[in-house]
Design goal:
By secondary structure, this protein is of the alpha+beta class. The chain has helices at 2-19, 76-82, 85-88, 217-233; strands spanning 26-36, 41-51, 58-64, 98-100, 105-106, 109-110, 113-115, 122-131, 136-146, 155-157, 160-163, 169-170, 172-174, 177-179, 194-203, 207-210, 213-214, 249-259, 264-267, 271-278, 284-291.
């Protein structure tokens, strides 16, 4: 009899779990960022529309501030690299990086934050009132990133700027709760899928490779023209990019829908190649590659 009751309880538990509908949080980012290639820094502002699709209300939101992983040698990133002999050689007089000038607001009202008890690259955004299931809030903050010398995904090296995991981003909240975690050199990133509208202002002679679709037509047309020529000829003397206007800055707009992250790279000497790819659905999409014309 006891075995029968246990079996029934297991069936009920499995059936109940199977009936729970799948959900994930919904995020929409708007980011305006400017690269300072003299100071190796990015100055930006960010707005996130965060919709809570979880069945429970949220009293706070964990945020990743992953540029702070490069802040000093006490972080989880540095500790992981230093404790691995095969990776520690990366750290040859590194230049540190960080994120600062944060001032969070929620629905236009200044919001409080709390530091993570262990990791400097995680922060808790406190909500004045719980965010109910199905409701949305608008979170905004300015931010400033000093890029490190390159040794782990993000940074600068040889005139190139690599911006990966560079903006404040909410940690994933799913059926198992919050997944706040520090930035690591060896590891993957569990991120909420989101829609991104991003504008990048850079010196006019830089080529930018970024997540999503370039919305700035003149720049897109130039990349396609150069890229198609380089794809056709594939010579050792590729056609190189020439800015429409020398001196000053240019602003490029990008759109990406339902992707886990937005990353971008800027360099004056990228070689561009361009072609199209036809998907199984019949849809034709653009395909770009960006690389340095250097001998191996």
């Amino acid at each position: 009899m006891k075995s029968y009751i246990l079996f029934v309880l297991i069936l009920i538990s499995v059936a109940t779990e199977a009936q729970d509908p799948y959900w994930q949080q919904e995020l929409r980012y708007t980011i305006d960022a400017t690269l300072n290639d003299k100071e190796n820094s990015i100055t930006a502002k960010e707005t996130i529309v965060y919709k809570n699709n979880a069945p429970a209300a949220l009293g706070f939101i964990w945020f990743h501030l992953w540029p702070n992983a490069y802040k000093d040698e006490s972080t989880a990133l540095f500790q992981q690299i230093k404790n691995d002999e095969s990776r520690s050689k990366k750290l040859k007089d590194p230049k540190y990086g960080y994120i600062d000038q944060l001032a969070f607001t929620v629905n236009g009202v200044a919001a409080k934050t709390e530091a993570h008890p262990t990791h400097t690259d995680i922060i808790k955004l406190l909500l004045d009132k719980p965010l109910s299931s199905g409701d949305s809030i608008t979170i905004a903050t300015p931010f400033h990133v000093v890029l490190p010398s390159y040794f782990s995904r993000s940074g600068y090296a040889d005139g190139e700027f690599m911006a990966c995991q560079w903006y404040p981003k909410p940690a994933v909240y799913d059926k198992n709760g919050w997944h706040e975690m520090p930035y690591l050199d060896m590891g993957e990133f569990y991120s909420e899928y989101a829609t991104f509208n991003v504008t990048l202002t850079v010196p006019s002679d830089y080529i930018v490779a970024a997540t999503g679709t370039l919305q700035t037509k003149a720049e897109l047309d130039a990349y396609k023209k150069l890229g198609a020529a380089n794809t056709t000829s594939r010579s050792n003397k590729p056609v190189l990019y020439q800015p429409a206007t020398k001196g000053g800055n240019k602003t490029l707009s990008y759109y990406a829908e339902q992707v886990p992250d937005f990353a971008w790279f800027a360099d004056k000497n990228f070689v561009i190649q361009y072609d199209t790819v036809q998907l199984a659905s019949g849809k034709v999409v653009d395909a770009f590659s960006y690389y340095h014309n250097k001998k191996k």
